[in-house]
Amino acid sequence: MKRLSVVLALCALGLSAAHAGETPPPDAERDLPPATILVLHPAPEAVLALKHRLLPGLLDRQDGNAAVQYTRAALMMSERSDEQLKAIDELRNVPAQDLDREKARAVLALFQDALQKMELAARRKRCDWDLDLSQGFALLMQDLMYYRQLARLLRIQARLEIAEADYEQALHTLQTGFAMAQHVGEAPTLIHALVGMALADIMLGSVEELIQAPGAPNLYWALTALPRPLVSARKGIETELDVLALTYPELRDPESSHLGAAGWRALTEQVLILAGADHGSKKELAPTLAALATYTDAKRHLLEKGRPPEEVEAMPVLHVVAIYMMDGFRRLRDQHFKWHYVPYWQAQKGFDGAEARLQEGRKTTDAFLAALLLPALRRAGFQIVKIDRRVAALRCVEAVRLYAASHNGELPRSLDDVTQVPIPLNPATNEPFDYRVFADKAVLWAPVDPQESAERALRYELSIAR
Amino acid sequence: MFRERQYEDTDAIEGALASLKPAPSGIDRDILMFSAGQASRPARRFGVLWPLATSGALLAAVILGIALLTQAPQRVTEKTVFVPVESARPAARAYVEARPALWAREQPWPRSNYLELRQKVLAGGLDALPRPEPTGSAARKETVEELLGISFSRLPAPDHFWMNVRRDRENRL
């Protein structure tokens, strides 16, 4: 029996070794996400390593506020008809080699004014969105929806330029796109930051198209020179931290706010409606229900904090409730937000713990506001690192092109074989990317994060064009 | 003796008076009475004040009359005013008045749109953003004249200003 199992194991080992040298096994067998196929042309490093850039250089930038120009571009898009906007959608998924150039030119000509404004905006020295944060949760962001179309326009423009082998111009367009992603992402709300990341993701798709074009320059150092994180959500996170007190300044320090019973009732009603906990049309009942559910706990909380009983009894009921809820909200909020300030790969356990405490806290009445208002911060953290992971993976791809340029078009057997440039780690895990060669193809992938679906995880299948 | 002498003097006077002839008086009674009244009047304190005030009032009346006749007819508008009937404590009332309810604000997205949008964008990225409403060429646009409430046909000829600006610029070049 023992001998049989050894023979079987050896057979299995032999079969797998023979398999590894031929073609990549089917995706289902290896439990890997579907791959983005990249057919590469070897490309050495440019004589001037930083000749190609993915963000406008200092010499290209002029005085002025980029946000004004972006807003004008968005306004121009808002004046377009639905048919014109649909023309963008029709071209967005057409690969460069299949692109109907005449049609692409016609669509770009339709939106020439918006493209010019974006080009101008991306080359401004500063970007101040001048958002009125005192509006808090009521802040209006109607123009954001147009940035999706603006980024797709840039992608079509870059695709046309790549198809026409005008790589310098394609890089110019990519600079516009990446600068716009950064500028939008720097606006002080988490929604802006997420939109900025999505714009960067669209432009990284254009980078994938460019590096497959014959004769395209190697972008290893251009990708390496991008800031990390590419889109910072720092301002947005800071706003999220205080957005409740920005919306209602009385909640910044509810213990010293004296609104009277009617004032606290009005404020409680507003907060409950904002959070969607107003019981539909019976919004006038919401504060009473909140008071009924929490007053006993709230009173005990204030007594434990050292407030004299007679003072607590004399306070309006909803004032006592507001202090209790805000104390609970801040405690749970900080447990979440502190993990945003450490690298994602170190923060995952922290986020999980904070999430567990929030779930546990749902059983107590003071977690009420936190459960309703806190964003899914771990997901936001992953969205940030996902962009940087894609940049790092593309740096690995460009390192492969560098290697192939000096090794007769061969793929490196391992990323360790690449000695010309440093190979980046996966920033989501702080570990090397997985890289394996199967015959004339290589697969580069990152493990699936719990925050992403397996179908959308990162995986490149690389081959050298013959 | 004394009485006789007294009567003698009287007779002399009578005689003298009798010799006098009646003559028209030099005094006009009416003028005398007017002058007496004028003399008895107190001194005028305010000089030209009342005439000036009267003139001013008359002038103002004339100006207002002209303005009334020449002004455009006023449009009568209806305005609904809601009077709060519920009494509230001053602090609470001030709070409510200073911060109108969020749901009462004009918003293109549903209430608490920030939270909903944040959740959607976190889950679905850019595709979660609402699709833009078609407002372009299909929608009727108001003309500049309609927006400004003026008619360009009533304005002076364009070369009064812009043509002169262009001419100046050309001359400078």
Give the structural class of chain B.
Answer: mainly alpha
Topology, number of strands of chain A: 8
What is the rounded Rg of chain B?
A: 48 Å
Order of helices and strands of chain B: HHHHHHH
Element-level helix/strand string of chain A: HHEEHHHHEHHHHHHHHHHHHEEEEE
Features:
heterodimer; A: 466 residues; alpha/beta; four-stranded mixed sheet; two-stranded parallel ribbon; 8 strands; elongated; B: 173 residues; mainly alpha; 7 helices
Topology of helices and strands:
The complex is a heterodimer of chains A (466) and B (173).
Chain A: H1 2-20, H2 27-30, E1 36-40, E2 62-65, H3 66-78, H4 82-91, H5 101-110, H6 112-122, E3 124-126, H7 145-163, H8 167-185, H9 190-211, H10 220-224, H11 234-247, H12 260-274, H13 286-304, H14 309-314, H15 317-337, H16 344-361, H17 368-373, H18 377-406, E4 425-426, E5 431-432, E6 434-438, E7 441-445, E8 459-464
Parallel strand pairs in A: 1-8, 2-3
Antiparallel strand pairs in A: 4-5, 6-7, 7-8
Chain B: H1 2-19, H2 29-40, H3 49-70, H4 90-98, H5 113-124, H6 144-148, H7 162-172
Please provide a brief summary of the model:
Chain A has 466 residues and is α/β, with parallel strands linked by helices. Helix content of chain A is 56%, strand content 7%. Among the domains of chain A are: 164 residues, no CATH class; 139 residues, no CATH class.
Structure description:
- The complex is a heterodimer of chains A (466) and B (173).
- Chain A has a 4-stranded mixed β-sheet, with helices on one face. A two-stranded parallel ribbon of chain A has the order 2-3.
- Chain A is elongated, with a radius of gyration of 27 Å.
- The model of chain A is unreliable at 4-22 (pLDDT under 50).
- Chain A has 466 residues and is α/β, with parallel strands linked by helices.
- Helices cover 56% and strands 7% of the residues of chain A.
- Chain B is an all-alpha fold.
- Chain B has a domain at 92-128 and 147-172.
- Chain B has helices at 2-19, 29-40, 49-70, 90-98, 113-124, 144-148, 162-172.
- Chain B is rod-shaped.
- At the A-B interface, helix 4, helix 7, helix 9, helix 12 and helix 18 of A face helix 4 and helix 5 of B.
